[in-house]
């Protein structure tokens, strides 16, 4: 969009814009793709003084331009980091905590991208006693990221101070930070000592966090087991209540049972309290630990093993039950084979999985200076409807009252027709899709699914309680087969390639749960906002008015609700052509602002455009355009 | 382009909406209910200033007894949004005459609506500078009857403001006496370990100015900072005078400062706005002179007794003195009885913050008063929970002292009519977060 002429024009006059307008200009500039390196340097020279601007938003916007322009030039990119470091650190230390939080989030992103460039500035990330916890948490993350051989000692010393902090979440976070540093370092000697000191602080939450970390540490550095186990052995399992910590402790008891004198007895007492252990995760760990312990010290553990297997087999949790059964049969089959399975020589874990892919990190970096950085996820994850979860829609339908109009539409004859038609369809489909045996059940779907649907749709009882009402079997089968678009996958030899003029079935039927499912599955084919003229608003005193109007155009309502000025309607319509395809619509109307929002989803993409025009023309007669 | 706000709400502490303004219709009018139920009425409040509920993001800030909430539904520019709120509050304060709270909002509904219309369009912030806005929105805030009445000012030609190159100053100002006040305000942040080593120390300073100058004056400010001095000695090929030079880590300037000229000549030159403004901000980490040293010794004698000895040493010049020195020494929650001996000032035990508060109104340089206290504790059953020692915190103000050593070397005023000006320069050092672990 931005031509070089336009760019220079804007940049040379940037001082004439107000500080807020400068932010917008800079944001525009960051989208510009420079043609060569000279142009990049020109832009940066023109903008360098913006980094000294008093308005933090301008500084961040400039930072974005610099970072994005130099992405292709590695060495310059690094110099940019050096240049922007000081202004960003200033922004962090001035202004309200909320402002510094916003800036810190960006700094955090940069620190994580290039920790080595910030390793000498670690003191800026020390927490102050009175800072709010959201600032502290980011700072802890950054301290973890910048730790390297030269500054680890200072950073860990500082982190240890925070562990004694009154703020429990921060104390926990600090312990985790120490652990993370331990996992990324080569020389962990001093850190292990510190971690073990935490265990001696005798604070429940510190102990719990530390146990989890010691476990991870032992998985990576088994050579430290002697030191750790000596301390861990002194911890009474009664003082450990948190699930993860308990699981970690049990894991260590199993793994190092030969080094811990009373490991079998601790496990035994834990098994005695099997029923009080509510977490399946802990019970799973307990089972494995007992089996491991059994192979190391059989005579002492045999009794506990028996008790554990018995308790496991009687367990109501499927996984626990299965694992107990598995161990039981394995031991029965061959004890030495079981030992090879349960107690193989351990391999140290070299790298723990990173929870965020580099692709996502790059996406966030592309969206520098926006919310994405604060949330630490790319914008599509929190702005698109699809990613926010499907629960919103089902809640909506559930809370709406069902349109009474559609009740009298169900006509048996028509349904029979549909069923026949489906039998044809399914036989022709059999050849290509009858692979797994459980598909067979799909063919008697009408009866089965009716029963299940009845139970599902208690909320919308007026419709589903009608005995004559059945779902369209096509949908059910396709659903079970996992096909999205029935009409496109079904063979339709009779159909001409060009779509005939669309005719809607005046007596179409559909049940609410099918609607709900289809609504969730189908992609949006049209979303539109339109305004309603005054006559339309005046006519819309009750939802029924619109329902009758739409029905005269063969568009039926499945659910409607709301009270003035907000109304919400869900409509559907059915094609008269074979194979039957459905169109679903959502219509949200606000009579006070005279606005309506339309969403259309269609089974058949080919005819969706034709339908949209039809639907809109029907609405326009009601005064919406 | 990222917006800054779709809607802005002002809520009181109970969550009632005082004022709201929708800038875009992509957020529903009832989103604020979600904020109330999901943030205000839960423990979430204060855990994070940016939260997402449903499809909307909420940015909130508490200012005195008002929550200002910004709602957006798109991927907005957070830094800009927070800056906008801060600036808007500053603007409201200048209209209301200093205070911004629930009462001030209730008294000024109409004015606030008018301002909200002006300072943001369709989610993009517009001009927020009070000097300019006061030209268009001449309505005055309702002040408390006791504050002094503002003097009437003539309304000058407003169109110049929008088009003219100098957006922050109007033309045709006349003062009988031309004066400039310049304050260097530094706040020292310190984090000292219990062993007395400095973990972290920096100074954030700002230069505040108050100008009462006629016409369109050009000002030039010289400081004893390293870069500026070096550049000057280069230009004038004059050997650098001996004396301390200060290395500024980072500087930011008010929009009136000519940044291009700062980059090429390293001089701060500007056409100042009328009245008060913040000329520049800077940060210094090297060579900070700490005004106070604190030497604490806290001994726990058994389970019910503690001995606290704190020595505070002032290390600035003997002729100077600090004002309003407050030293907060933390003690455990279960403190029962305290007794003090202080060589200067007054001390008392404040149970609500679990601190011994030692106040010294006037603290001369090169002295070292001490406090020794005995603290008796209630013996509790939960003896295992050892006391986590929070840091000692300190507040102070030292006039005519800069922790960084920064000095103003010259302040030149040039105006075409060539009038004489009177310049006043003040220095003050305050405590930022001055923490000593013990």
From TrEMBL, chain A:
Subcellular location, principal? membrane
Location(s) in or outside the cell: Endomembrane system
GO MF terms listed in the record are: clathrin binding
Spell out the family assignment given in the record's similarity comment: Belongs to the adaptor complexes large subunit family.
The answer to whether UniProt assigns keyword Protein transport to this entry is yes
Please identify the protein, giving its name as recorded. Beta-adaptin appendage C-terminal subdomain domain-containing protein
Q: Whose protein is this, by species?
A: Kingdonia uniflora
Keyword terms of this UniProt record: Membrane, Protein transport, Transport
What range(s) does the Beta-adaptin appendage C-terminal subdomain domain occupy? 502-620
Q: Which GO terms describe its biological process?
A: intracellular protein transport; vesicle-mediated transport
Q: Which GO terms describe its cellular component?
A: clathrin adaptor complex; endomembrane system
Q: Can you tell me where the transmembrane regions are?
A: none
| Stored InterPro entries | AP_beta, AP_complex_bsu_1_2_4, ARM-like, ARM-type_fold, B-adaptin_app_sub_C, Clathrin/coatomer_adapt-like_N, TBP_dom_sf
UniProtKB/TrEMBL annotation, chain B:
- Membrane topology value: Peripheral membrane protein
InterPro entries listed in its UniProt record: Adaptor_comp_med_subunit, AP2_Mu_C_sf, AP2_Mu_N, Clathrin_mu, Clathrin_mu_CS, Longin-like_dom_sf, MHD, Mu2_C
Q: What is its main location?
A: membrane
PROSITE patterns in the record: CLAT_ADAPTOR_M_1 (PS00990), MHD (PS51072)
Name the GO cellular-component terms: clathrin adaptor complex; clathrin-coated pit; plasma membrane
Record's subcellular location: Cell membrane; Membrane, Coated pit
BP-aspect Gene Ontology terms:
endocytosis; intracellular protein transport
Task: List the keywords (alphabetical).
Answer: Cell membrane, Coated pit, Endocytosis, Membrane, Protein transport, Transport
Report domain MHD positions: 177-437
Q: Which Gene3D superfamilies match?
A: 3.30.450.60, Mu homology domain, subdomain B
One Pfam family of this chain: Adap_comp_sub
Q: Which family does it belong to?
A: Belongs to the adaptor complexes medium subunit family.
Q: Which PANTHER family match?
A: AP COMPLEX SUBUNIT MU (PTHR10529)
Q: Name it.
A: MHD domain-containing protein
Q: Which source organism does the UniProt entry give? A: Kingdonia uniflora
């Amino acid at each position: 969009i931005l031509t070089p002429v336009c760019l220079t024009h804007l940049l040379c006059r940037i001082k004439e814009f107000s500080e807020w307008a400068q932010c917008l200009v800079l944001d525009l500039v960051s989208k510009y793709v420079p043609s060569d390196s000279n142009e990049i340097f020109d832009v940066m020279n023109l903008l360098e003084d913006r980094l000294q601007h008093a308005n933090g938003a301008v500084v961040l916007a400039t930072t974005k331009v610099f970072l994005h322009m130099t992405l292709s030039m590695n060495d310059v990119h690094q110099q940019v980091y050096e240049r922007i470091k000081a202004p960003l650190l200033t922004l962090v230390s001035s202004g309200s905590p909320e402002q510094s939080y916003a800036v810190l989030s960006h700094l955090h992103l940069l620190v994580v991208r290039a920790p080595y460039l910030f390793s000498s500035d670690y003191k800026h990330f020390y927490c102050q006693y009175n800072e709010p916890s959201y600032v502290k948490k980011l700072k802890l993350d950054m301290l973890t990221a910048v730790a390297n051989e030269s500054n680890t000692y200072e950073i860990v010393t500082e982190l240890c101070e925070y562990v004694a902090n009154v703020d429990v979440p921060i104390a926990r976070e600090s312990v985790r930070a120490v652990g993370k540093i331990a996992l990324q370092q080569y020389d962990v000697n001093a850190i292990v000592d510190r971690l073990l000191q935490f265990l001696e602080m005798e604070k429940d939450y510190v102990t719990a966090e530390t146990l989890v970390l010691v476990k991870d540490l032992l998985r990576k550095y088994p050579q430290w087991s002697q030191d750790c186990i000596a301390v861990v052995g002194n911890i009474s399992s009664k003082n450990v209540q948190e699930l993860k910590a308990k699981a970690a402790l049990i894991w260590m008891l199993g793994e190092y049972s030969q080094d811990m004198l009373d490991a079998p007895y601790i496990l035994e007492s834990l098994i005695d309290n099997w029923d009080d252990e509510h977490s399946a995760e802990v019970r799973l760990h307990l089972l494995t630990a007992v089996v491991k312990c059994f192979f190391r010290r059989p005579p002492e553990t045999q009794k506990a093993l028996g008790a554990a297997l018995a308790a496991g087999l009687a367990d109501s949790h499927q996984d626990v039950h299965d694992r107990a059964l598995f161990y039981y049969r394995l031991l029965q089959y061959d004890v030495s084979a079981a030992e090879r399975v349960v107690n193989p020589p351990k391999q140290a874990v070299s790298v723990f999985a990173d929870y965020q892919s580099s692709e996502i990190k790059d996406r966030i970096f592309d969206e520098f200076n926006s919310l994405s950085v604060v949330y630490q996820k790319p914008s599509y994850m929190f702005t698109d409807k699809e990613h926010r979860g499907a629960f919103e829609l089902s809640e909506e339908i559930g809370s709406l009252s069902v349109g009474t109009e559609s009740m009298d539409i169900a006509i048996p004859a028509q349904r029979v027709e549909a069923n026949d038609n489906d039998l044809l369809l399914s036989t022709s489909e059999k050849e290509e899709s009858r692979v797994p045996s459980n598909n067979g059940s799909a063919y008697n779907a009408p009866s089965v699914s009716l029963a299940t649907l009845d139970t599902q749709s208690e909320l919308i009882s007026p419709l589903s309680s009608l005995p004559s009402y059945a779902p369209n079997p096509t949908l059910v089968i396709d659903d079970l087969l996992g096909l999205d678009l029935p009409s496109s996958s079904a063979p339709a030899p009779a159909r001409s390639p060009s779509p005939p003029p669309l005719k809607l079935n005046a007596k179409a039927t559909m049940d609410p749960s099918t609607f709900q499912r289809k609504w969730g599955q189908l992609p949006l084919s049209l979303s539109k906002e339109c305004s309603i003229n005054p006559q339309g608003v005046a006519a819309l005193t009750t939802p029924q008015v619109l329902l009758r109007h739409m029905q005269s155009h063969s568009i039926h309502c499945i659910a409607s609700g709301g009270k003035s000025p907000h109304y919400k309607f869900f409509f559907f319509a059915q094609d008269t052509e074979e194979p039957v395809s459905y169109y679903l619509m959502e219509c949200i109307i606000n009579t006070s602002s005279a606005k309506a929002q339309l969403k259309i989803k269609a089974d058949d993409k080919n005819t969706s455009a034709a339908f949209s025009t039809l639907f809109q023309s029907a609405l326009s007669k009601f005064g919406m355009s | 382009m990222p917006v800054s706000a779709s809607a802005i709400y002002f809520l009181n502490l109970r969550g009632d909406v005082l004022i709201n303004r929708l800038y875009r219709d992509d957020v529903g009018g009832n989103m604020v209910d979600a904020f109330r139920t999901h943030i205000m009425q839960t423990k979430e409040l204060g855990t994070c200033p940016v939260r997402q509920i449903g499809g909307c993001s909420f940015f909130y800030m508490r200012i005195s007894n008002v929550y200002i909430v910004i709602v957006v539904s798109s991927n907005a520019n957070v830094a800009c949004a927070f800056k906008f709120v801060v600036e808007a509050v500053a603007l409201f304060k200048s209209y209301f005459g200093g205070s911004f709270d629930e009462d001030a909002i209730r008294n000024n509904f109409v004015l606030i609506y008018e301002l909200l219309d002006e300072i943001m369009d369709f989610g993009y912030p517009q001009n927020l500078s009070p000097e300019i806005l006061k030209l268009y929105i001449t309505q005055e805030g309702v002040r408390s009857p006791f504050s002094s009445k503002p003097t009437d000012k003539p309304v000058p030609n407003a169109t110049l403001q929008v088009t003219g190159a100098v957006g922050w100053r109007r033309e045709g100002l006349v003062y009988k006496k031309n004066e400039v006040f310049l304050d260097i305000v530094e706040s020292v942040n310190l984090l000292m370990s219990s062993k007395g080593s400095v973990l972290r120390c920096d100074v954030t300073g700002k230069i505040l100015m108050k100008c009462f100058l006629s016409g369109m004056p050009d000002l030039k400010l010289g400081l004893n900072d390293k870069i500026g001095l070096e550049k000057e000695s280069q230009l004038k090929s004059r050997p650098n005078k001996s004396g301390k030079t200060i290395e500024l880590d980072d500087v930011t300037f008010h929009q009136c400062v000519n940044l291009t000229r700062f980059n090429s000549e390293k001089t701060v030159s500007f056409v100042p706005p009328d009245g008060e403004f913040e000329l520049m901000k800077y940060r210094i980490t090297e060579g900070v002179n700490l005004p106070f040293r604190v030497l604490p010794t806290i001994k726990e004698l058994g389970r019910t007794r503690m001995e606290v000895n704190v020595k505070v040493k002032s290390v600035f010049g003997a002729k100077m003195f600090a004002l309003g020195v407050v030293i907060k020494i933390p003690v455990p929650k279960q403190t029962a009885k305290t007794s003090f001996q202080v060589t200067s000032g007054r001390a008392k035990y404040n149970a609500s913050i679990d601190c011994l508060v030692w106040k010294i109104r006037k603290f001369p340089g090169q002295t070292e008063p001490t406090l020794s206290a005995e603290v008796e504790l209630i013996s509790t059953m939960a003896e295992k929970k050892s006391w986590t020692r929070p840091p000692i915190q300190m507040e102070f103000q030292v006039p005519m002292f800069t922790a960084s050593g920064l000095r103003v070397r010259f302040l030149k005023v040039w105006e075409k009519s060539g009038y004489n000006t009177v310049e006043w320069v003040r220095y003050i050092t305050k405590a930022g977060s001055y923490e000593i672990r013990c």
